Every structure is written in structure tokens, then in C-alpha cells.
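Hey, sorry to bother you again with one of my protein questions. There's a protein on my desk that I can't quite get my head around. No rush at all, and the record is pasted right below.
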Amino acid sequence: MAKRYEYKDAKSSKFWEVSVSGKKVNIRYGKLGTDGQTSLKELSTPAEAQAHAEKQAAGKVKKGYKEAKVKAVKKVAKKKAAKKAPAKGTADQVDQKARKAILKAVKKDGLALEHADKVFKADPEVVLAAVKQDGWALEHADKIFKADREIVLAAVKQRGDSLKYADKSLKADREVVLKASKEDGYALMIVDKIFKADREIVLAAVKQAGLTLDLAAKSLKADREIALAAVKNYGGALEYVDKSLKADRGFMLMAMKHGGSLSYAAKSLKADREVVLAAVKTYGGEFEYADKSLKADHEFMLKVVKQDGSALEYADKNLKAELLAAGDVEESTKPTRIYSKTEPAGEISAGKLDDSEVSLLRELYLKDSLKGSELVAHEQNNIGHTYG
């Protein structure tokens, strides 16, 4: 198959050619009277290549292109080739200078493609250079390249989430999806539903973004390797793990060691001493979710406080008073985690406190009156401020 199509109106005159050789589809396009530019795409089979070429040609016809004779075009091309090179300063030479400039720009910043002329957004070399620098440049490429496998693969290799700008057909291409998921787990939000049940793809995704376990097929949420990989990346992913694993002692012990919250454990495991200790070792506040029987257990409470003194806050009230009165433990004033809630584009501050400020912090912390205090409102010189 070798066909040529031409489009002419008051503003433009251009051509588009397509030919098929085995599994390869060769496309040439540009302004009438020029050699134009070429794009080569290789499909899986000759039949797929033929079907792709026909589909692209049909799209051109819909846009107003009319089929022309290829032989007649070759004669015109020969005549043009026989002419002398354009004189300095001609339009052709200016176009080449502009092309070199945009190539240089996109190699430095792929998103520069957004501001390029349409002709360059349809230039395969320019587009490929842009997506290799920044996958998101695919958004600004000509529509034909969003269905170009080579270019989309290059884009997702650089930024997995750039898959959202690809043609629907490539969001259903397993190799493309796998490569995207290995680079950015959130690509799983974009892909065809069938891949959410694909073990290799889901495993690749949760290793990059544990939270994406929520998107996985139910059967994979019960897969120990996948579930643990998700929790290792993000402890909160334990929320989306199958119930069977939340009741699995061995799995939950590993999950606790990687920041999983005891709040998601099966009720029976919230009374399991080893599981609870593993959770408290990561963060004392996890003792809040322990079974009441453990919160009133004198011997166990001493072990818990030894792991993290802040866990004492969640002990049985009577036991807490007993331990403090006996001098077995001290009230912990060491904050293990501090959260700063601000308005959008607000301020977050961080830094070291001097001795007097530490004393004030202790007093305010014990009285639960940090909010609105001078310590919070006052600007110390040793505190760094970040805005936005």
C-alpha cells in the first residue's frame, strides 16, 4: 500500500503519504512542493501495519484531504530536487533555523513544545526529544504521536503519569502500561481496567505508590507479596489490604514494622502482645488501638512505655495513676510526631528550640494548651519558615 493525500485551501497546501512494508508503516508529510518529513512506525504483524495505515488514511480523508496520484507526485519531487538550494534568507532556510532552535529548546525543557509552532508539534524528532526530556510534553504533541508507540514509551519512561495523554489504544498496551507503572505507580489510575488484575503491573505500581493498592483487583489485595510491598512504601496502604491478611499474624507483624497502623488489624491481633509492641515501637500513639485488656496490664504496660513513653497516654486511667504514683514510669513529654495544619499557601516552620523554649513546650504540652500559645505565635530567630 502506497497512497498520497493532498489538502488545499486559502491558508494552506500540504500533503500526506503513507506506505506499508511488512510490519512497518512509513508516513511522509509536509507542505506541497517540499520533501516534507517522515515518521516510521513498526507494528506487531503486517496485518496490524496495514490496518494502522488504513486507519490513519481514513482520518486524513475526514479532515478534507483528497487522494492524489503517487506517480505524478514523484515527477514533481524530481523537478524540485533539480532546483538549486534556496538562497540565504529564504523561507526554507528560516524554517530550518527555527527547527534547530526549537530542538535546542525542547532538549533543555521538554514543555517548551507547548509554545512551538504546529509544524514542530508534528515533527517526530522534535516531539521525541521533548518527551525524553519531560514526559508531560506528550500533551502538546500532535495527535498522531499520542498513538505512536515509540514516542509514548519514551514519555512514560521519563514520567509514568504522562500515560494520561496517550491514545486509548496505548493505555491498553501491556508493555507501555508496565513501563509507566514501574516509573510512577499512580499510572495505575489511568490504565485499562484489565491491568488492575495483572499481578506484575500491580506489584510494580504499589512498589512506587503503596496507596494504589486501593485500585487493584480484590484478589491481588489478598496477595501477601503485593500487600506487603504496598505497606512498605506507605503504611496507610494497610487499609486496603484484604481482611484475610489483616487477621494473619505473620503478615501483620511485618506490616507493623513497616509503619502499618494497628487500627486496621483484626480485633484478635489488637490483643496480641507481640503485634502491639511492634506497632508501638514504630509510633507510641499506635497503643491507642490496642485491646483494653493490654491497656490495663501492669507488666505489659511497662514494656510498652519502655518502647515509647508517649504510649502511656492511652493506658488504663487507674493503671496510669498507679504507675506514676509508684514512680515506675514518668509522664512523657517527648512529642513523637508534630502536625502543622495551615491554610493553602500558608506557613510551616521548623527548627531547634533553646532550653527555655523546651521548658515552655513541656508545660504547654502537659496542659494541652499549645494552640494559641506564645511559643507557637512568636517567631524565634532559630526557626526556619517555608511558605506556599
User: Anything to note?
Assistant: Residues 91-108 form the longest helix (18 residues). The chain is about 45% helix and 10% strand. The chain has a mean pLDDT of 82. The CA atoms of residues 343 and 377 lie 15 Å apart.
